[in-house]
Design brief:
This protein is an alpha/beta fold and about 475 residues long. It is built from 16 helices and 18 strands. It has two domains: about 280 residues, Aconitase, domain 3 (2-Layer Sandwich), CATH 3.30.499.10; about 170 residues, Aconitase, domain 3 (2-Layer Sandwich).
């Protein structure tokens, strides 16, 4: 029987099928951080049990960490307690822990691929919705709740209903200035934030084949923003080249054995999906959001859509525009902004910093803009320095911060002030997401760079 890529990975990890219920799924890799794990570890303590397979669990501090002066004690008591709890729980259970100051520390969905923890055909979970990032490697990866974190820690399994399958195919060549982030925001604008609810998405076609691994991670990262359980891309030579010789990937004969399996990980030609969507990559432009969910996005040169043209929820639509202080029919080009944030598990990798510096090289940061440039890991930070990107940033008036989730979610000191506009390369723009009253415009590193040097929304294609 023909199978999709998703079927092949899922079915090979089913430990037990519950009649008229969920599947019991074995989990290959469990990533934990300081926010969603303390209560789970407390549950283990109350029941007097240990982590079943500590070697399959990896802990890093990222959400609550400061991005300046990381060598000093964390000031916020709650954050300090959560970080300490993760450190102590990791030590107690023999889990690899990469805390502040550790050379491997960084955002959980950045360091996983960097060190080869993320591998094709694996099942990967984390108490974080953007775990879907790891699907770029042909893995089934999804976020879980705190009670499920405890379940995986204690049993290395999770009970999950099997999602439906969707395939999104995009062929054609992307235009200059159009990035993987734009592709993802384009898809979400077409499907809405609920259009893929109940599905696991496979991305296929020329556009995704042409993408780098870091670009594929950006796309899969944003799968959750259209309601999907996760997203994945079939592994290919780019995938294998990326992970080869990384710390936690198989070596020597084990690599050869793994490759024999990994090379089978693609959807069969006649595999059937529950839903198929196709788009033309040549029609995608640099994107920017104008509202309070990731689906409210448009090509940067377009006008904000009229309320009467929305499928439903006109009052909610108007409420969103009111929060952003925008009017329907307005152009986004030329709108003044206050902050630029480059970073997060969506766009905090070295390629994102390379793209950002392409635009700002030889130019100066606008005086009205506060820019937070935050690498996703120490490995990214090192590459920024080694490749000379830091010199370019410094000459243009920018400063580099230390790794962490930073302004993505306002759980640390990096908060956008109320009423201020932030062009952000992160993943969510809900009301108050980056700080109470903050106004977030989601965009690519190229769009963020253009805004940083002009002080307003600018089409990056005009700056090449």
């Amino acid at each position: 029987m023909s199978k999709t890529l998703f079927d092949k990975v899922w079915d090979s990890h089913v430990v037990h099928k519950i009649k008229d219920g969920p599947d019991v799924l074995f989990i290959d890799r469990h990533m934990v951080h300081e926010v969603t794990s303390p209560v789970a570890f407390l549950g283990l303590k109350k029941r007097g049990i240990k982590v079943l397979f500590p070697e399959k669990t990896f802990a890093t501090a990222d959400h609550n960490t400061p991005t300046i002066n990381q060598h000093l004690p964390v000031k916020d008591p709650l954050s300090a307690n959560q970080l300490l709890a993760l450190e102590k729980n990791s030590e107690l259970h023999g889990i690899s822990y990469w805390g502040l100051g550790h050379e491997k520390n960084g955002i959980v969905h950045v360091v996983g691929p960097e060190y080869g923890i993320t591998q094709p055909g694996a099942t990967i979970v984390c108490g974080d919705s953007h775990t879907s990032t790891h699907g770029a490697f042909g893995a089934i990866a999804f976020g879980i709740g705190t009670s499920e974190v405890e379940m995986v820690l204690s049993t290395q399994c999770i009970m999950q209903p099997k999602p439906k399958k969707m395939r999104i195919t995009i062929d054609g060549k992307l235009s200059k200035g159009v990035s993987p982030k734009d592709v993802a925001l384009f898809i979400i604008s077409k499907l809405s934030t609920s259009g893929a609810t109940g599905y696991f998405v496979e991305y296929s076609g020329e556009v995704f084949r042409d993408m780098s691994m870091e670009g594929r991670m950006t796309v899969c990262n944003l799968s959750i923003e259209m309601g999907a359980r996760g997203g994945m891309i079939a592994p290919d030579s780019k995938t294998f080249d990326y992970i080869k010789n990384r710390e936690f990937t198989p070596k020597n004969t084990n690599w050869i054995k793994a490759m024999q399996y990994w090379e089978t990980l693609e959807s069969d030609q006649d595999a059937v999906f529950d839903k198929e969507l196709k788009f033309d990559g040549e029609l995608i432009n640099p994107m920017i959001t104008y509202g309070t969910n990731p689906g409210m996005g448009i090509g940067i040169s377009k006008e904000i859509p009229l309320a009467k043209n929305q499928d439903g929820g006109i009052e909610t639509y108007k409420k969103s525009l009111n929060y952003m202080n925008f009017d329907e029919g307005q152009s986004m080009i030329g709108k003044n902004i206050d902050f630029v944030f480059l970073g997060s598990c969506t766009n905090g990798r070295i390629e994102d910093f390379r793209e950002f510096t392409k635009i700002i090289k030889g130019r100066k940061k606008a005086s009205n803009v506060t820019a937070w440039l935050v690498p996703g890991s120490h490995q990214v930070e090192k590459a920024i320095k080694d490749e000379g990107l830091l010199d370019i940033l410094t000459e243009s008036g920018f400063e580099l911060r230390e790794p962490g989730c930073s302004a993505c979610l306002a759980m640390n000191d990096d908060k956008i002030p109320s009423g201020k506009y932030a062009v952000s390369t992160s993943n969510r723009n809900f009301e108050g997401r980056q700080g109470p009253g903050s106004r977030t415009l989601l965009a690519s590193p190229l769009v963020a760079a253009a805004a940083a040097i002009t002080g307003k929304i600018t089409d990056p294609r005009t700056l090449y």
